[in-house]
Structures are given as structure tokens and as C-alpha cells.
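Sequence, please.
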């Protein structure tokens, strides 16, 4: 059965992440060039495009401790599969990723319950 994913929804290893902040998913397609890439004497660019890899900058609105744990558990492994909607093709893309260092700013301790605001992590295609 195919996954149904809408804008700004992120699924990691089959687990739907908490809803992202409005405009909280920034998708970048990074071009990876060969070693021989550069400008030649006449100023023209030369080189070979080896691959295009995704980087996903993710930011969440205030999260409960339980929601923050879902994110943390998902990105804890060295590598994981992530699915998201590619805006250029409007199709679901699933690729292998690793995560940068997440941030969990404590927003509030209301009634002894922690809430985290602006939780962020960058995940990079392997």
C-alpha cells in the first residue's frame, strides 16, 4: 500500500513525525560535482554532476516531551529512511538519511510538564 503524504509531513522509518511548524520543512536539492569541477581559462565552468542529494531542515512548533521523544528516537540511528513530498515533482520520495545535531530548546515547565519550542534538526541524504 502506497503512503499518502501531504506537504510538510515527514515520515521516518514508517513513523509519522509530529506536525511540523508552518513552513517548517525546507527541502534543498544539493548538487554534488566531480573533483575536476571549476572554471577554465576562458571563464567557462567544467565538471561532471555526480548526484543530487536532499537536505531537509526540519522545525517543529512547541512539542510535549512525548512528541520530542518521537523525533529523537527516529533520528537516533546512524542512518534511517525518510519519506516526504518532493515539491518539484509532487511525488513521495523515500531516501536514506542521517541526522545532524538536534536542538531541543525548553519552552516551558508549566505544572512540571516540559514543553520544547523550536525543536530543529537537519537531515542529510546519505
Amino acid at each position: 500500500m502506497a503512503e499518502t503524504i501531504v506537504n510538510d509531513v515527514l515520515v521516518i522509518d514508517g513513523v509519522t513525525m509530529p506536525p511540523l511548524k508552518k513552513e517548517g520543512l525546507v527541502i534543498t536539492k544539493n548538487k554534488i560535482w566531480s573533483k575536476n569541477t571549476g572554471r577554465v581559462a576562458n571563464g567557462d565552468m567544467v565538471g561532471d554532476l555526480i548526484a543530487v542529494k536532499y537536505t531537509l531542515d526540519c522545525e517543529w512548533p512547541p512539542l510535549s516531551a512525548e512528541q520530542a521523544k518521537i523525533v529523537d528516537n527516529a533520528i537516533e540511528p546512524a542512518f534511517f529512511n525518510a519519506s516526504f513530498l518532493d515539491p518539484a515533482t509532487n511525488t513521495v520520495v523515500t531516501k536514506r538519511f542521517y541526522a545532524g545535531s538536534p536542538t531541543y530548546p525548553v519552552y516551558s515547565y508549566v505544572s512540571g510538564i516540559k514543553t520544547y519550542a523550536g525543536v530543529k534538526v537537519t537531515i542529510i541524504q546519505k
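Residues 41 and 47 are 14 Å apart (CA to CA).
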